[in-house]
Amino acid sequence: MENQAVSWKKVCIIAGAFCAFWIGSGVATGQEAMQFAATHGAFKGMAINILYMLLLMFMGYVLYGTGQREQFDNPYDVFEYYCGKHIGQVYLWFTVVLSYCSYVVMMAGAGATIHQYYGVSTSTGTYFVAILACLTAILGIQKLLDVIGVIGPIKIVFLSIIGFYALGTIAGNPDVLATNSVLVSQAGFKQITSIWPWSAVLWALLGLIYGITFFIVSGQVCQSVKEARMGAILGVFATCVVLSLLTIAEVVYLDLIRGQQVPTLAIAKSVAPFLTKVFAPIIVLCIYSAVASLLLLVTRKFAEDKTKKFNLLAVCLTVVGMFFGTLLPFDQLANILYPISGYIAIALIGFIIYKEFINKDAFPYKCKKASVNTSMDDIAE
């Protein structure tokens, strides 16, 4: 029987770390909720959020448990574990490239946020976040999780404020939601797909390909599969509540966010101006924690953290990312990267379902670090 010890403090830290990682530039700026959900209107947008949450909970439940159970030497070994040696290598390198591209996209989001609020150049904001994230990544995975695990709840609170203001606006003007749900599709915002259920699926698949290695390393630091899975589910739930509130807010405050790279900041400046001095740094904090996580995960493919090789690679990747993060506007980068990643993940989820629920012996893999009771059959559900 597998040890199912659970520390609620650890569960909350893991959940907070998930929130901090997931609420990067796409969520914090409002671009992700806009392109995947809000452009479909408030009612379909809420349905998208619910379906997205259920799919993401399933992925977190499985992968956090796998990370704790298998204790991979390298988090990227998860692709060989689920897909076999050859196909696993294809996914491994695609994920490395995607994670690095996401890292660049998020730095662009940081630059856009700092420029929109503080008036400094976009490149200056990008460079500032990049350097801070690099210094954090050098601290190593455990320190990173400890730091962003505290940041996560702060993000949840401040992003929720926008949603609560929107709910207050709806209470005073009940027709605004239905009216703007029609108008939002004509407002010129970029949209991932016009088919709303498919938008939710692509959103979740993007999460899979983007977050799989983070799921694995987060699960590894837990003391039991149960603890890992509880942290994942709690983190997904909290994040998706925020996304639902943001979706409603973007529909309600449609006139405020037209033409804005950072919709959340535009809303905050209008409805809660007394909070904007705090809110802008919070958005930057959201992006910084996700950027640091992605940088660490990409660099871990090539070197163990806390080594000279790791530190040198982290600095080099930061310098390159700082350059490319200033080439394209943030919304264009997000609209290009997000749907491609979702489509690539379709086959990967098939491999995961096949090994977890159909043939547990498929693609034999022996992990050097795996300790005791590594079979799924030994897990006490």
UniProtKB/TrEMBL annotation:
InterPro entries, sorted: Na/Glc_symporter_sf (IPR038377), YkvI-like (IPR038728)
Q: Which domain of life is it from?
A: Bacteria
Q: Does the keyword Protein biosynthesis apply?
A: no
Keywords assigned by UniProt? Membrane, Transmembrane, Transmembrane helix
Quick check: keyword Hydrolase in the entry? Answer: no
Residues annotated as transmembrane: 46-64, 90-111, 117-140, 147-167, 195-218, 230-254, 274-298, 310-330, 336-354
Q: What is this protein called?
A: Uncharacterized membrane protein YkvI
Species of provenance = Pelosinus propionicus DSM 13327
